[in-house]
Please model this.
Amino acid sequence: MIMRKTFGLAAGVLLATTVLAGAETLTIATVNNGDMIRMQKLTDDFTAKTGHEVEWVTLEENVLRQRVTQDIAAKGGQFDIMTIGMYETPIWAKQDWLVSLDDLPAEYDIDDILPAMRGGLSVDGTLYAAPFYGESSMIMYRTDLMEKAGLEMPDAPTWDFVADAARKMTDKAGETYGVCLRGKAGWGENMAFLTTVANSFGARWFDENWKPQFDSPQWKEAITFYLDLMNDAGPPGASTNGFNENLSLFQQGKCGMWIDATVAASFVTNPKDSTVADKVGFALAPDTGKGKRANWLWAWALAIPAGTQKEAAAKEFIQWATSKEYIELVALKEGWANVPPGARTSLYENPNYKDIPFAKMTLDSINAADPNNPTVEPVPYVGIQFVAIPEFQGIGTAAGQEFSAMLAGQQSAEEALAKAQALTAEEMEAAGY
Amino acid sequence: MARAVTTQRKTINTTVAWGIGLLIFFPILWTILTSFKTEAQAINDPPLFLFFDWTLENYTVVQERSDYMRFLWNSVIIAGGSTLLGIIIAVPAAWSMAFVPSRRTKDILLWMLSTKMLPAVGVLYPIYLMFIQLGLLDTRIGLTLVLMLINLPIIVWMLYTYFKEIPGEILEAARMDGATLREEILYVLTPMAVPGIASTVLLNIILAWNEAFWTLNLTAAKAAPLTAFIASYSSPEGLFYAKLSAASTMAIAPILIMGWFSQKQLVRGLTFGAVK
Model:
């Protein structure tokens, strides 16, 4: 009896050691958003399958960006997997800071990743970060206010229609504003949005010789249009409104339209937080008929810093977290409305997902974006709402401050454009372009 | 003759003092109130003060998502350790500056303070690289050392000011009675300076507890204290004020309670020597 017990114990220990041999503890840096938090909750599934443990470091987006950049540049090795965006991926890959993800097994089905996402996260055809979720931007509008204004939103509206509708929906005395748009300074805040507006008006950040283009008539037209529209139909204090501020205005029923990230669709239609959950419609971001729409493309993706000691385990994690099976796991536990959107084609072919009201418009918006060909006229850079060069964070935020000051009434559109042109030219020259 | 204070004047003084006190405390109160609201109520316009559906949901969510005790334990070790280490180094330093000053003592004191004039970010990269080399990234010992070093000038300065108030003759008498240097500092100086040392300790624990630059930059998962716990609840996409407030309330509660119970010591120490 004792012998049997001892034997059983020894076998148990042997089994445990076999599973744990090669078991690693991965440290993953990530952002605080719904999809990432859900992934953290489901990590037990990964541990059960592979034996690897996971430690999460959750940070605010700007802090995360600064922390991981610092760590990867200094080769600090604090993280085995980093959550990075479409902006960092091409820059870091060119520096050889990231491990290539081209050798993931066939069952991962790399071809299932949406082409726009794969394009934005690859350099010379090699994937360096696997998209966990992706987004574009689109119009979210109040169906009741649109009807009251006697208008019908087309699926693919023009800026003229949007401006006209916004002015008709505005009732300043009743605190209803036709359109809520970003005004808060920052390259990822107002400049993300304004760059897409500029793209749709035929403007671009740089010409093919890296010469800044803020002095072009297209930029002037785009910025003047934005300023006039916000003055006529925007909420007061819009120069400090970013994503969260506009989200809260829209949820409280104070905006007729809001053009922002597709991910917001699930927030504004959630009756728990939104007072207008059942009155929201969706449409593609507007255009001016020049061939480019004002919608961006973004992905939060998982990447492995070069030099990590745990590359194999890190790849196993990425494979798990960005797989088709993971999407099914989330659907099973939290419902189809909560699966991470915008990464895989198969999700949009799934009949269970087609019933989600914003699914089709999200996919159409993502498909309408091409980060490798973002503008009407040719450009030397990659990126739609940003320019994928290291200098852009600084330049984008400085230019954003000028346009935010313009919206606050501290300067004219011409002054803001002239200042943006001067500061961009100076920075680019200093950077050796 | 004692100055006569009229009842009316007393009432005015009390009201003003309470008013200022409440004004200073209001952000903390607002954070605590917000932590009991839903996310929708937290952003309600006009803001809701007391009349809303109180909920503990945010605390449940925060408890589920984060290992609060681990962050708390790290905070306790880092704040306590750095203060203790600082005091051990600063007491002899302040003693020598107060009782056996040299020609350069004033300069040294000023130079020590001048290190506080450099923005921390200016030395982030050198320290980060040193930490990589020494294997100190994301360790409690590394953070304890850094926080001790950045707070050391304040500890020395505070102790120096308190020690200056103690008559040197008492220490001299102890020496005459045959006390060694160690005995003089430990049994004569320290007991007399207890209020000063206590308030220095308390202030430094608070400073180290709230320090959010180094604690965020030099930690990842293992040594992250409560500042990192709070930071993980901020979000650029989606509503987070209520949950962030719950996390903040949980993070400041221990230090708030400690401050509350030790306020007598703190005030006594800070005003030590002010009235002669």
In short: The mean pLDDT of chain B is 89. Chain B touches chain A at residues 38-40, 43-45, 65, 124-125, 128-129, 131-132, 137-138, 216-217, 220-222, 224, 228, 231-240 (CB under 8 Å). The first helix of chain B runs from residue 7 to 34. The domain at 67-232 of chain B is CATH 1.10.3720.10 (MetI-like fold).
